[in-house]
Write a structure and sequence with these properties.
This protein is mostly beta strands. It has eleven helices and 55 strands. Helix content is 8%, strand content 52%. The strands form twelve sheets. The chain has a 22-stranded antiparallel β-barrel. The radius of gyration is 31 Å and the shape is globular. Belongs to the TonB-dependent receptor family.
């Protein structure tokens, strides 16, 4: 027996035998066992399964107890009994060998010698002889893109045959704790070639790894989510991660892929329709979503009323969406967090890529400033889309003009192995001229300065200084009524985040942040010959939102993991003018009792509270998991709007003297299943969300330039619940997903004292974003290495609207309309089919320019989907469709 064990150990060292679950034979228990000695079980099952079992009697494994049912996997259950006690098993040639793992590692070390014929096959980590082969040592390093040397965030590394695995952090850094010995390190990242690296761990040391993009080596695109097993293994519930290659698989509208549109095709995420900016997550409104681009807050997610994303797809590394609060390091919104991470520039070579289309063009240039140390990437887009509006049937639209531009610049500098600096900037402007008299502008600016420092292999610090600004401007040039109206919001933020890797199964994140808001609530200035109006300026407001958090990610067992944390936030309303209203009267100009004026830095109001977060994942097996979560979030700023989509007349307002912050509690439960080696995945997730102090407006409210706006706003309760289903195919010629969501979003505004501050009699009613049924189908079929076809189909229930149900008319007096209760009717259902055809250039290894032609057909069957239904003063209804016909587009994308 000793010779057999030595022989098998030698085979294991040579890489012929690995104790992997995926290579285990299908052995199952033949009977039930309850608190039965392990040795008894091994004796009975070895006979029943016709296998041989080897172990040393003096190890005392007869004390281990087994509980199993007939039909359960035998080897998996035996491992569960042995591994917590420091033992393992090896299966080879119908022999099951129980291993004393520390003893095995000692044996491995004894085989190491300068003349070991296997030595050249392994990469050495550490120096000298291990002091104690039974104690783990640290293996750390960076995983980077082999092409441009940029860090790969979220790349996974696993020591095969062990439970020691992790993913890289923001700088591409990882750290593992391993016993001295020989391992095969499995390294992978979505869209990159997987690497298996044999290593020989002697002592604490480093291992830096470069991965190469599959599109570079194979000259083709592999479409996959960021880790195909991510849905099952991800520890945070409600998290969606989409790599840029998956985004590019969607049909392009007007020749450009859209990361926001790719998210809208997933369950639980929707939009109002064509011509609308913003998106809705689990029944929330667009102002409840936190949008981050390289840590900077972006207040408008789209260009040209939603037809283009605010994020340049050529610069995006990945997109992460939390359909809830997310980990405790995020805060400030009650619906979702969208985190868009931009690439670092190529630190080795100069590259250029872009696209030329019928509506817009874009160009991105990147390269080293100092090779492998300092890099830059700069990208810009511009549109020339006036001709598009000429195709619209609405006379006001075809007499209009529209355009946009945006520009990104990012510089990354690796000072040394422990310090990395980066600067990321963004600016954009949208312009829409309506019927040749009124011009609307949206302007965004953002900048982030970051410093990452590694104190030790286990402790990382990231510091960021962030600036964001959003301005909305409306200009009318008709001489008798000429005016200029503008509003906006400005942010300054500083934050410090720490990440401490306790060990491979335990990570602790903590940090502090402070965010200053400056609110421009609107100003009106008459222009030219307008003598009918007087200038109006609403007093601005300021706010300071500070927070500290701690978030713990802990694997209790290999199957059970817990991500929990708490965020404590405090908000100070600074400055502004506020009105005190009589308690026994509804808020109005007539009920004002006093006016309170605070200087710019004076505290007018203070709010604070804890925001606990909890996400639990249970791996039923390697292919199936259950997840449940609870999130509490607080939102101190409010988007004031009387439209269903983000528009130029919307503005942001601070919580304050008469306006409370919104507080949301969300509960989720889901099941996730993969099969056929992660080729297919299916998931079902249910959620319930209750939001207190959401904001809406009274009937007949005045939103713009209203000094007593607080009196026209009401706060109440929101409820949202639903079930989300997703089926996805990740590999093969045909890839894509089918998503379905059943959801409800309702609101309730009840003031028992005043009917004026009650909506719909205080009963629950559908919100503007209540669409019970939502279906999306996304398919990509590669007919060859050069040609592919993409399809996108979307269907949803029509959104709620308020309509006149009767009217009164007397002689020549125009009709007086009597409206239904709010949101009691719906526009017709929405559905649309898009197709996209991509032809890549010929596959030549050293070709100077690699390009592709993209033909897209938006709204293939010309569905006249309603943007909304409007009513004339006499009560006549008419439907507005932004795109009521098929819209073709051709573009050429290139890379040099």
């Amino acid at each position: 027996m000793h010779r057999l064990l030595v022989f098998l150990f030698f085979l294991a060292l040579c890489g012929e035998v690995y104790p992997q679950n995926s290579e285990d034979p299908v052995l199952r228990f033949t009977k039930d066992y309850t608190e039965t000695s392990l040795t008894t079980v091994l004796q009975e099952e070895s006979s029943a399964n016709s296998i041989k079992v080897f172990y040393k009697q003096d190890w005392g494994i007869e004390a281990f107890k087994v509980n199993a049912a007939a039909g359960e996997p035998l080897l998996e259950k035996i491992r569960q009994v042995l591994e917590p006690n420091g033992y393992g098993i090896l299966f080879y040639a119908n022999n099951l060998i129980v291993l004393n793992q520390p003893g095995l590692e000692s044996y491995k070390y004894e085989q190491w010698a300068d003349d070991d014929p296997l030595l050249d096959q392994f990469m050495l980590i550490g120096e000298g002889k291990p002091e104690d082969a039974t104690k783990p040592v640290s293996v750390s390093g960076y995983i980077r893109d082999g092409g441009d040397n940029s860090p790969l965030v979220g790349a996974s590394i696993q020591a095969e045959g062990t439970d020691q695995g992790t993913v890289t952090n923001y700088n591409g850094y990882y750290e593992l704790q391993l016993l001295p010995g020989r391992y095969e390190m499995q390294v992978q990242y979505a869209g990159y070639e997987r690497q298996n690296i044999p290593v020989q761990v002697l002592n604490t040391g480093s291992l830096d790894i470069e991965l190469f993009n599959q599109t570079v080596r194979l000259e083709e695109v592999t479409i996959s989510a960021l880790g195909q097993e991510e849905g099952v293994s991800e520890k945070v519930a409600g998290k969606e991660v989409i790599g840029i290659e998956a985004i590019k698989s969607l049909p392009a509208f007007m020749g450009e892929v859209d990361p926001v549109r790719s998210l809208i095709s997933l369950p639980g995420i929707s939009s109002v329709g064509e011509g609308t900016a913003g998106y809705n997550v689990r029944g929330g409104d667009p102002g409840q979503n936190l949008l981050l681009q390289d840590h900077a807050i972006i207040y408008n997610s789209a260009h040209m009323f939603g037809f283009f994303s605010a994020f340049n797809p050529d610069l995006i590394r990945d997109v992460v969406l939390y359909k809830g609060g997310g980990p405790a390091n995020y805060g400030g919104r009650v619906s979702s967090v969208l985190n868009v991470n931009l690439r670092n520039g190529n630190a080795k070579n100069f590259e250029a890529n872009g696209g030329i289309g019928l509506v817009s063009s874009r160009l991105t240039i990147e390269g080293p400033i100092k090779k492998e140390r300092t890099s830059f990437i700069v990208g810009g887009r511009a549109s020339y889309s006036d001709w598009l509006l000429k195709q619209m049937k609405d006379p006001n639209l075809y007499q209009s003009a529209a355009s946009f531009y945006d520009l990104n610049l990012k510089v990354n500098h690796v000072h040394d192995q422990k310090n990395v600096f980066n600067l990321s900037t963004y600016m954009s402007q949208d312009r829409f001229e309506f019927a040749s008299d009124t011009t609307y502008y949206w302007k965004s600016k953002a900048a982030t300065l970051g410093w990452s420092h590694i104190f030790s292999p286990n402790l990382l610090m990231q510091t960021h200084a962030v600036f964001s600004n959003y301005q909305s401007d409306i200009q009318n040039r008709e001489s008798a009524f000429a005016f200029d109206y503008n509003s906006g919001i400005t942010n300054y933020q500083g934050k410090v985040d720490f990440s401490w890797t306790v060990n491979s199964s335990h990570k602790l994140d903590f940090g502090i942040s402070s965010l200053y808001y400056g609110f421009d609530l609107g100003s009106f200035e008459p222009l030219l010959n307008n003598e009918n109006e007087e200038p109006v300026e609403i007093s601005g407001e300021q706010g300071l939102e500070s927070a500290f958090y701690i978030n713990d990610e802990f694997s209790i067992t290999p199957r059970l993991s817990l991500v929990y944390g708490v965020r404590f936030s405090n908000y100070l309303t600074l400055g502004g003018k506020y009105y005190q209203y009589a308690d026994d009267q509804p808020k109005s100009v007539a009920s004002i009792q006093d006016t309170l004026v605070y200087s710019k830095n004076q505290i007018a109001k203070s709010f604070s509270g804890f925001e606990p977060r909890l996400s639990l994942r249970w791996l039923i097996n390697s292919n199936t998991s259950l997840k449940t979560s609870y999130y509490r979030t607080r939102q101190y700023v409010h988007l004031i709007s009387n439209t269903t989509a983000i528009s130029p007349v919307d503005f942001w307002k601070s919580s304050g003297y008469n306006l409370e912050p919104s507080i949301a509690d969300q509960y989720t439960f889901g099941i996730f299943r993969n099969w056929r080696d992660n080729m297919y995945e299916v998931s079902a997730e249910a959620y319930y969300k209750k939001t207190d102090q959401i904001v809406d407006y009274k009937d007949g409210a005045t939103i713009l330039l209203n000094e007593t706006l607080d009196a026209d706003l009401v706060q109440g309760e929101g409820q949202a619940y639903g079930v989300e289903f997703l089926f996805r195919k990740n590999r093969g010629k045909l890839t894509g997903w089918l998503g379905y969501t059943y959801s409800r979003s309702k609101r309730k505004f009840l003031n028992e004292m005043f009917d004026e501050e009650t909506i719909n009699g205080g009963e629950l009613y559908p919100s503007n974003y209540d669409k019970p049924h939502d279906v999306s189908l996304v398919l990509n079929y590669k007919t060859s290495r050069r040609f592919s076809i993409s399809l996108n189909f979307a269907y949803s229930t029509g959104r709620p609207i308020t309509v006149p149900v009767s009217k009164f008319q007397y002689e020549d007096i125009l009709s007086v309309l009597n409206y239904s209760e709010r949101n009691q009717f719906r526009v017709p259902d929405y559905h649309r089919l898009d197709l996209s055809f991509t032809l890549k250039s010929k596959l030549k290894k050293d070709k100077l320019i690699n390009g592709e032609w993209v033909l897209s057909l938006y709204n293939v069957y010309g569905r006249k989907n309603p943007y909304s239904v409007y009513f004339s003063q006499r009560g006549n209804a008419f439907q507005l469709s932004i795109l009521g016909s098929i819209f073709p587009s051709l573009s050429y994308n290139f890379r040099i």
